[in-house]
Amino acid sequence: xxxxxxxxxxxxxxxxxxxxxxxxxxxxxxxxxxxxxxxxxxxxxxxxxxxxxxxxxxxxxxxxxxxxxxxxxxxxxxxxxxxxxxxxxxxxxxxxxxxxxxxxxxxxxxxxxxxxxxxxxxxxxxxxxxxxxxxxxxxxxxxxxxxxxxxxxxxxxxxxxxxxxxxxxxxxxxxxxxxxxxxxxxxxxxxxxxxxxxxxxxxxxxxxxxxxxxxxxxxxxxxxxxxxxxxxxxxxxxxxxxxxxxxxxxxxxxxxxxxxxxxxxxxxxxxxxxxxxxxxxxxxxxxxxxxxxxxxxxxxxxxxxxxxxxxxxxxxxxxxxxxxxxxxxxxxxxxxxxxxxxxxxxxxxxxxxxxxxxxxxxxxxxxxxxxxxxxxxxxxxxxxxxxxxxxxxxxxxxxxxxxxxxxxxxxxxxxxxxxxxxxxxxxxxxxxxxxxxxxxxxxxxxxxxxxxxxxxxxxxxxxxxxxxxxxxxxxxxx
Length: 478
Prior knowledge:
The chain is α/β, with parallel strands linked by helices. It has helices at 2-28, 55-63, 77-86, 102-105, 112-118, 159-167, 193-211, 232-235, 264-269, 281-311, 343-346, 371-379, 393-397, 458-476; strands spanning 31-37, 65-67, 70-71, 122-127, 179-180, 182-183, 215-221, 228-229, 270-271, 318-324, 329-330, 336-337, 350-353, 360-362, 366-367, 407-411, 414-418, 422-429, 432-440. The protein has a single domain (32-399), classed as 3-Layer(aba) Sandwich (Alkaline Phosphatase, subunit A), CATH 3.40.720.10. Helix 2 packs across helix 10 and helix 7 (193-211) runs parallel beside helix 10 (281-311). The longest helix is centred in the middle third of the chain and has 31 residues, at 281-311. Its cofactor is Ca(2+). InterPro entries: Alkaline_phosphatase_core_sf (IPR017850), IDS (IPR035874), Sulfatase_N (IPR000917).
């Protein structure tokens, strides 16, 4: 009996020690609050702009590291998100368009959420993380939360919008949902999905505060994605007569036809938009007003979540990352939406706050594929071997450091390389360059003159073309 008791005591002591070690390891793991915003252009106050009201994003930027030269891999939702989540670059056959699914294009590699789950984290998907909520479902600890209100994916609420939708339904298309590009009802924040999303995330944070389990909480806001539907109080933040139109509403001088697109997302899916040619200044201001209102609406939701994170004391051990899946045009170059290779679309917001790293701002070139390894290193977990990016921790600790000499993006048969001074794009057909464009940001930051055919830039074109070829060859070897 004594021998059995001694063995029992030893087993208990070992078990207690193991529990203590597990608790210590859990306590040492940093949580991750992973905030995605759809179609967010680089225009928050923290980026030196003052027309759009974004106090919550600005506050996060004041507490974290602001990356003003962060680049998406593909300027369209589905592909950009799949690339970021997998940590892989796009290729001509991988991460191509907004229909992209990570499970189809990169099924064998763990996404960032799946990797954290395998390392003992509770992983939750709230809102729009992937384009398709059923993509990468094994990465999450429970079913993704997708709130729905109103009519259609556009979530129309007003009688005026619903009457327009009904008028566009036909015998051949009885369920067609085509309505206005904006609405502004006098409703509470939770009348639209992003408000409901915020309420759910606050509940999740309270759960994590009580249970003290390490978490990877992914929160994806839909707005400012079209249609520009937001509660009236956010529209009321702006006087439309004061809003500024794009400074450069014309295509760049010398830009090839391939640089242009017909902004079919706006023309084809919403009423009241001319099917060809530019929009009127009056309509342009209304669209800009709606976009700004939607950004301010999302900014308020982000503020509520960050306030709760701090109130619960979770901010002391949580890495917060905020990113936009790509930029957005508001009449720049006569374009709306994304789907192109201009800097305002490829360059997108990225802010990372680590409680152990002091705040700052960096103009070092970074890519969204760098987010995956960064969060691994900041959280203290190993990185998987498949990653194409590299951790941003060093540049976060020293914002003056050079992270990369060049970053890359592609969309359909166009491929871009961005250096500190230049943005160069080639369009290929059967492996041959059929068009290109080069912008010198030192002398032309708004990209108004394509200098790819200027003899003074011939050496620059050769150098950047070589970088694109080198990148293609590296991807072909994967």
